[in-house]
Design goal:
This protein is mainly β. It is built from two helices and seven strands.
């Protein structure tokens, strides 16, 4: 997501939208690989994201203050293959 797009969109328009990470993302407990799909849950000093549960272990990760340029905004109502 471009920084200009991040600044233009409000929390109300972003909350619940899906993004796919371009790079591995981590919090203090765990890391998820690039390509993980997340749901936007907040916008304050970056994005607050919650991962979809891992298909292997069921882990869902919460990550805050994510630089919007590290994720790709997916189209509303679905996810892209790839």
């Amino acid at each position: 997501m471009l920084m200009s797009e991040y600044r233009r969109l409000t929390l109300e328009t972003l909350r619940g939208r899906k993004v796919r990470s371009k790079k591995p993302l981590a919090n203090s407990l765990a890391a998820m690989p690039a390509g993980t799909v997340y749901t936007i849950v907040g916008k304050l000093a970056g994005l607050a994201l919650r991962s979809d549960p891992c298909v292997h272990c069921g882990l869902a990760l919460n990550i805050r203050k994510v630089n919007p340029e590290k994720v790709e905004l997916l189209p509303p109502g679905g996810t892209m293959c790839g």
